[in-house]
Amino acid sequence: MAQKTSIPKGTRDFGPEIMHKRNYIFNTIREVYQLYGFQPLETPAMENLSTLTGKYGEEGDQLLFKILNSGDYLKKSDNLAKETSSSLTSKIAEKGLRYDLTVPFARYIAQHQHEISFPFKRYQIQPVWRADRPQKGRYREFYQCDADVIGMNALFSEAELIKIIDEVFQRLNIKVTIKINNRKILYGIAESIGAPEHFKTLTVAIDKLEKIGIEKVFEELKENCVPEEACQKLKPVLMFNGSLADKTDFLKSFLTDSETGLQGIDESEEVFRKASLMDIQSSMELDLTLARGLDYYTGAIFEVITTELEMGSICGGGRYDDLTGVFGLKNVSGVGISFGAERIFDVMEELKRFPPGSEQAIKVMVVNFGQEAEEEGIKIVQKLRANAIKSEFFPKPAKMKKQMNFANSNNIPYVIMAGEEELKSQKLTVKNMETGEQQKMSLEAIIDQLQ
What is the pTM for the complete model shown? Predict the structure, then answer.
């Protein structure tokens, strides 16, 4: 009996047509990164668990995919009944799949610090894995497209990354809002409501505001022992609306006694000021409810949503001041962003924003007429390729219907026929597969037109 074929939930296969569209997104992001001076980098799919754990908060640690050790991995655990999941994991799994690209990047920086010239600007486009519940726009295996500047604490870097976000989405023809906040503002809020010791709890809960609503956020805070009085003081902050100036004025009043919070306001104003000099086309806003629950963020944080449909965040990032410190490289500041390629793909599909031809691998197919014409057909397709035209030659003589069906099924927009009559006249027949229109042209004219 044949084995039933399947793939794990939260993962997907990508056929050629989809891959061409995905590569259109990756290439667009890559071109912008390179335009702004970022250099390519790749890290392994798996890291030591000691590298990954403790960097994403308790919830993040639970979503790490662990890899079983090779060989008899239970040899060290004689009495399994006495083991907890935590103690057993340390004995049977030493490695895990990367959860994001930022922590492996920090590990790379610490490991190769003597080979790097700071500030170091890198981009990285690779898959990551999270043991999350699969749903629309959320997968267990997905690509991130990161850019980071490390070894520089100048707020110009934040503004430049905002410009990169803007330029990518302008090129992809997606209207977005770039939401900006600062973790120092959030810590100042925690101080001002009398709950600085609950800062992590507050940020994790606030980060879920759009998903679960404000009442559920307060339920979660109370379940985690945040005092009722603190929750009541927090409510007007989360519900405050207004312009950038309104929000800034409100925060300066609310955070009067928090030095950290006031520093966060100053940094945010500076980021907005510098970004305003860069001709940003997208909408920007100071979002007081933006928290980003990852523990390593320490300053400015970003999140991007499209204003054209409901999808959730399609890009995010922020400042992390000492992520490399846990790997032995102290006092190195970094800031980065990450585009969510999967969600961007879903947005572009739903909005029909992929340009015509972005799903095509082959632009033209040369028909194989067999015998003497076959030799000329091979020469024609090689000349097309020499002129950077993606071309295909049907590999063996076959009925015309079969060859045309092949062209249609592979979305090849043009077919060239070079039979006995065409070779004598030196005028090849070109068929537009979408309209059915046929023209007789020289090979040179065909090349000019296709280019």
Answer: 0.85
